[in-house]
Design goal:
Structural Genomics Hypothetical 15.5 Kd Protein In mrcA-pckA Intergenic Region, Chain A, Pseudouridine synthase, 3 domains, 26% strand, four-stranded antiparallel beta sheet, alpha+beta, 7 helices, 19% helix, 333 residues
Length: 333
Amino acid sequence: MSITMHFIVQPEEEGLRLDSYLAGAVEDASRSFLKKIIKNGSVTAKAGVCTKPAYGVSVGEDIRIELPDPVPAEPTPENIPIEILYEDEALVVVNKEAGMVVHPAPGHETGTLVNALLHHCAGYQHSGGDVKRPGIVHRLDRDTSGVMVAAKTQRAYGHLARQAAEHAFDRRYVALARGEFKEQFGCINASLGRSLVEPSRMAVTGINARDAVTHFETLERFGVACFVRLRLETGRTHQIRVHLRFAGHPILGDPVYGETRYQSWNVAREVLDALQRLTGQALHAELLGFEHPYTGQKMTFFAEPPQDFQEALMALRTLVSPLQCDSGGENNR
């Protein structure tokens, strides 16, 4: 069994290496896995079968890839370092690093957060859900860092999964985005569905779409970019990334929906260097709040953005004396 996917190269993707392009297009698939797929002759481009990972893609090109159907298997414990913010008999809260896949997927059968949790958390294997993603009630994209909760028991899984489905989690993010929002506070209300052109991607659309609402607050403005805080009212796939692109302010470092080329920016070399060191989209889940499944207590956890995000933010602050917006009160921390 295999799965065939196809993608149309967009203008901003012109000239990318084939393996880099597919790494941004095929969700949760590693570049090394995709290189192997390419060399095996499972990718076609405009000239036919392409076996060169370094092949440069061109605008409008139809890229097709045949992916092997993953063999179902239970994930195994792996001694992978993770930052545990809190743990008890019911659940575990972690600060997921950028670049870590949440659960096993094609090209990432190992090395995931689930593999790490199975090693570090006693009893975690008895939690509910899919056998490949025990205890996972919500997720973050591979290159999005931040706070996540996972259940350790069937009872906790049911309670947390219900909260997630009802959008009862308090989820707050920070991001670095291109350009500036004129407003200090605002709301992006635009339904999301699969792109008709690129089925692996999400898009603002009215066809087979679901309501999606993202609230934003502008924290700092730098001319070429801004630092924003975001709160999800709904939790759709790639919601923040697609909504900010739709608003004209794509997230810096996002290889699929955002801004990754800064050569044309009229800024100092040090700023460009800091932006190019971003390891993924500059999007971080800084806060997660939920009701404890056993006690009913409201719990809230916070984590600072990773080092590359903070270095990019500090570099942008050197451009101007940023407008420090009123944070709006105690609810912002």
